[in-house]
UniProtKB/TrEMBL annotation:
<feature type="domain" description="ETS">
    <location>
        <begin position="272"/>
        <end position="354"/>
    </location>
</feature>
<dbReference type="GO" id="GO:0005634">
    <property type="term" value="C:nucleus"/>
</dbReference>
<dbReference type="InterPro" id="IPR046328">
    <property type="entry name" value="ETS_fam"/>
</dbReference>
<feature type="region of interest" description="Disordered">
    <location>
        <begin position="190"/>
        <end position="221"/>
    </location>
</feature>
<dbReference type="InterPro" id="IPR000418">
    <property type="entry name" value="Ets_dom"/>
</dbReference>
<dbReference type="InterPro" id="IPR036390">
    <property type="entry name" value="WH_DNA-bd_sf"/>
</dbReference>
<dbReference type="Pfam" id="PF02198">
    <property type="entry name" value="SAM_PNT"/>
</dbReference>
<dbReference type="GO" id="GO:0000981">
    <property type="term" value="F:DNA-binding transcription factor activity, RNA polymerase II-specific"/>
</dbReference>
<keyword id="KW-0539">Nucleus</keyword>
<dbReference type="InterPro" id="IPR036388">
    <property type="entry name" value="WH-like_DNA-bd_sf"/>
</dbReference>
<comment type="similarity">
    <text>Belongs to the ETS family.</text>
</comment>
<dbReference type="InterPro" id="IPR003118">
    <property type="entry name" value="Pointed_dom"/>
</dbReference>
<dbReference type="GO" id="GO:0030154">
    <property type="term" value="P:cell differentiation"/>
</dbReference>
<dbReference type="GO" id="GO:0043565">
    <property type="term" value="F:sequence-specific DNA binding"/>
</dbReference>
<dbReference type="Pfam" id="PF00178">
    <property type="entry name" value="Ets"/>
</dbReference>
<protein>
    <submittedName>
        <fullName>ETS-related transcription factor Elf-3</fullName>
    </submittedName>
</protein>
<keyword id="KW-0238">DNA-binding</keyword>
Length: 370
DNA sequence: ATTTCCTTTCCTGGTT
DNA sequence: TAACCAGGAAAGGAAA
């Protein structure tokens, strides 16, 4: 019996690890990892301007704005509205309905006319993105990281490069064999929905989706690489050292992903939301192992096949051994009100993604292994 | 220190 | 009878 429990635990652990691999599992330069374990990490200087720019780079500047689809343009508007804490009700969404080419043709005055006070901010942000999209092809002499196509790794780098001390660490490590002759794995493209959003990570470790596939931000790995190098190694003059980041310091966790997650979403970490956890299982059919299944893929209807096993998995992720389907389902029912889930009446163990859930639609992600 | 969000836990009562 | 559903209430943890 004990053995069986142990086996189950082992299976679940493996499952969790596979679905949400700790970032340490990937090769990260030793200097960087040691810095993560250092308390200094919590109080490192975060230069506002460069950090925000770095976030943008990691999220938006991976595709030429003039190549954005209408959906991507809308996503960008949405992101910008939120980023600037703008009252969305003052924006006529019809004005946002354009593709990237049209967007890039707008002058500052056009933006002002269309979006009022937000127009300047939009124009400036777009200009920054366009500028970052045309980096000089200067060989910095700095070896690349091996990212293994893992978006968490990208996030880690994005996070680290905003940190002056870590920049020094990186330089110290520049001759370390670890990076030597490494090349970038082009297996991942970040989601434009929002920089480092949960959605962008939904396909993490699953199936990279192609920029040609239509909806997502594209952009070559070379673009990103150039951006990273520029931010890490070229913008030293922009840095204001030892300025503490606003708000509560991030918790130092053994799981580096937690550290990264804390900045991505107002209140949640990637995969921490139950509905995202469920979604990710559904999108990882190879790992699903009969836990959940799509009843109607296009409508977002799914069914729990092994409800208690899913609950245990959720509990394992939340380090809560007492999680049950009863409790999990209560949390699921709270999503009805927020329209993240919709009721499916008369069907046991069946739920449906609602309009406020993202990342599960076939149009959201092409080729997610579903 | 406070507020907000997202659960988690417990519960009662109903349905399949 | 067991399993599940619905939702109220209170509380906890984390982040802002």
């Amino acid at each position: 019996m004990a053995g069986a429990t142990c086996d189950m635990s082992s299976i679940l652990t493996n499952y969790i690890t596979t679905l949400y691999p700790p970032i340490q599992a990937h090769p990260v330069p030793p200097g960087l990892l040691s810095s993560l374990d250092n308390d200094k990490f919590l109080t490192f200087a975060i230069p506002e301007s460069s950090s925000e720019l770095a976030v943008d780079l990691c999220g938006w500047a991976q595709n030429m704005p003039n190549l954005w689809t209408r959906e991507q343009v809308l996503d960008w508007f949405s992101y910008s509205i939120e980023r600037n804490k703008w009252d969305a009700s003052t924006i006529d969404l019809k004005q946002c309905d354009m593709d990237g080419q049209r967007l890039c043709q707008l002058s500052r005055q056009d933006m002002r006319t269309m979006f009022g006070g937000l127009g300047d901010k939009l124009y400036d942000h777009l200009s920054q993105l366009k500028e970052w999209q045309t980096p000089p092809t200067v060989n910095t002499g700095i070896p690349d990281y091996e990212l293994n196509g893992d978006p968490f790794q990208w996030d880690l780098i994005c996070d680290l490069i905003r940190n002056e001390d870590l920049q020094l660490e990186i330089k110290k490590e520049r001759d370390y064999d670890f990076y030597a002759d490494r090349t970038m794995d082009a297996g991942y493209y970040s989601d434009p929905i929002s920089p480092a959003s949960p959605e962008s990570c939904a396909s993490a470790g699953t199936v990279p989706y192609s920029p040609q596939a239509g909806d997502s931000s594209a952009g070559s790995d070379l673009d990103i690489k150039s951006h990273l190098k520029r931010d890490v190694f070229s913008n030293k003059n922009d840095v204001t050292p030892n300025k503490r980041r606003r708000g509560r310091p991030r918790k130092l966790a053994s799981d580096c992903r937690d550290i990264l997650e804390s900045k991505k979403n107002k209140h949640s970490a990637r995969g921490t939301h139950l509905w995202e956890f469920i979604r990710d299982i559904l999108l990882n059919q190879d790992l699903n192992d009969g836990l959940l299944k799509w009843e109607d893929r296009t409508e977002g209807v799914f069914k729990f096949l092994r409800s208690e096993a899913v609950a245990q998995l959720w509990g394992q992720k939340k380090k809560n051994a007492s999680m049950t389907y009863e409790k999990l389902s209560r949390a699921m029912r709270y999503y009805y009100k927020r329209e993240i889930l919709e009721r499916v009446d008369g069907r046991r163990l069946v739920y449906k993604f609602g309009k406020n859930s993202t990342g599960w639609r076939l149009s959201d992600k092409v080729s997610q292994g579903c």
